[in-house]
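Running this now, will post back.
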Amino acid sequence: MITRIQRDHGRFQQIVRGMIRKDLRKYITRGEMFGKKGKDLVSIPLPQIDIPRFRFGKNQGGAGQGEGEPGDSLGGQPQPGQGPGAGEDEGQHVLEAELTLEELAQILGEELELPNIQPRGKKVVASLKDRYTNVRHVGPESLRHFKRTYIKALRRQLAAGEYAPGDPLVLPIREDKMYRSWQTMEVPESNAVIIYMMDVSGSMGDEQKEIVRTEAFWIDTWLQHQYKKLVTRYIIHDAAARLVDAETFFKTRESGGTAISSAYRLARELIGREYSPSDWNIYLFHFSDGDNLSSDNEVSLSLLKDDLVPAANLFAYGQVKSLYGSGEFKNYLDEKLHCENLITAEINSREEILDCIKAFLGKGK
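Update: finished.
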């Protein structure tokens, strides 16, 4: 039975979800969510919700009745205030609402109308799960199978001539009771790997990296909703590439030129060494300001065409606008390479992060 407080809590959760969905672009732009991410929960400030509160005091009879003028006291004597002085503005009531990453992914999927992903990798990871697939004669009362128990008791009473249609009372005895029985089974779960690549040359500043960090959080949230086993790897590059951890990925800034092919070579080596395309669903996301050595464009294109794009469920190139980047690489890709699982997008500001995510994930690859 659902209690009243459970119904009220459910309605409140629907209000929270609706407000987050309504202002999703604002939260993505500010990056408030991932900044407060715990292991399983995200804490989200919702200043628009005013929490109702009761204020208790003396029973002043007659309040709200009879004549009166604006400003008249409802009863009692005014008391002198304390402190340096009273403010004139209405206070802001801020609620910290907690959502699981699963709920956050559902909101993202609903708002962007993202289709569920169809895994491509042939091999899956087997996880153990208990499933109630049978019944037995012994077990705890919490697992009693009421339908089976009732049917068995009814058959016994019918066979013994104890069942009276005018008084259809069926009373199970100990021998009638049946209990649900579980079996531990291996459940296949598709596994996936995300490989993020980012240009960290001098033309990629802190603002560009913050955009990448925000977008990576939302991409992770959605793919974790789709896959139970998700691995994330990070590659940074300027003229050379290296494999790093998440903190280094988002904080490193180098100087010098850019050779995008160095990142693509390292990604190819990583996939060949650890993530066979026949076993893994592979997602590659590359972020750059589009500035690349012109002599390197053809090499990068060849690596994409021959190695990375065929191996991946999705290869997504996000070009972040920079004051110093040329922005030419996206145009080069759009002109030279046309593949169903290759998607390019421009991110000129934080406001376009949501549009970029929809472009990347909207095909359900």
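The mean pLDDT is 77. More later if anyone needs it.
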